[in-house]
Amino acid sequence: MQGQRCRAEVGRRRVGCVLTCDFRPVPVSFDLQPNLKGEFVELRPLTPEDWDDLFAVASDPLIWKQHPESDRYKEDVFKIFFREALESCGVFVVIDKKSQQIIGSTRFYGYDPEKSEIEIGWTFLARRYWGGRYNREMKQLMLAHAFKFVENVVLLVGETNIRSQRATEKVGGISSGMVEKAYGNRPPSLNVRYVIKRPRKKPRVDL
User: Fold this and answer.
1) What is the DSSP letter of 80?
2) Rounded CA separation 52/77 (Å)
3) What is the DSSP string of 162-195?
4) What mean pLDDT comes out for the span 162-181?
């Protein structure tokens, strides 16, 4: 399938890809699936073999309680999410570095070289990892990588998902308005659009 061919090209040539609306891969210079490692978490590309471990995390209904697609904990719904994730070329599993267990997922998406921006989203973590250093480090790793290629990182959070809005603001997200976004087979819903800009380098001062 095209998504799998796209993933193979990413692994071989170390380039990223985006999918147009007809799902044809387009090569770009952004590396969408690097391996990222921090003190507490590791991020690596999602594979089909990750289904059991990732669904074990995603099957907790409380993870999705405030999410626009609140039934994503159901196996048939999550299968669609998982398939689309594999096809998207930019998805990671998040791993607890100490236990080496999969604790969630996240992705890069929608690279736009003209606007110099990329989206981070579709993020979820097991509840015991909420609200602390794991989410913060995961986002820091992704932001550091993204800012090698773009000026702006975009995050979209559901209008009623207050918990994720607060988490996004903690890592530097600045609200820039509302946009509509469709989740799964649901009609489009309003989302807060957050932007994080690449930090400016301080000019060197010679004394």
Assistant:
1) H
2) 14
3) HHHHHHHHHTT-EEEEEEEE--TTSPPEEEEEEE
4) 90
Q: Two tokens at 201?
A: 């380098």
pLDDT beyond 50 at 142: yes
Strand 117-125 relative to strand 152-158, pairing: parallel
Contacts of 34 (CB under 8 A, 6+ apart): 145
Tens digit of each residue's pLDDT (9 = 90 or more) over 26-77? 444 789 999 999 999 999 999 999 999 999 999 999 999 988 889 999 999 9
Neighbours of 149 (CB within 10 A): 19
Q: What is the pLDDT of residues 83-129, one digit of tens each?
A: 999 998 899 999 999 999 999 999 999 999 999 999 999 999 999 99
Residue whose structure tokens are 């999918």: 19
Please state, in angstroms and rounded to a whole number, the distance separating the CA atoms of residues 127 and 63: 7
d(CA 203, CA 154) in angstroms, rounded, equals 26
Please, is 51 exposed, middle or buried when counting C-beta atoms within 10 Å of its C-beta (0-12, 13-18, 19+)? middle
Q: Which strands, in side-by-side order, build the sheet including 91-96?
A: 36-37, 41-45, 91-96, 102-112, 117-125, 152-158, 189-197, 174-181
- Nearest 5°: the CA angle 25, 109, 106 is 125
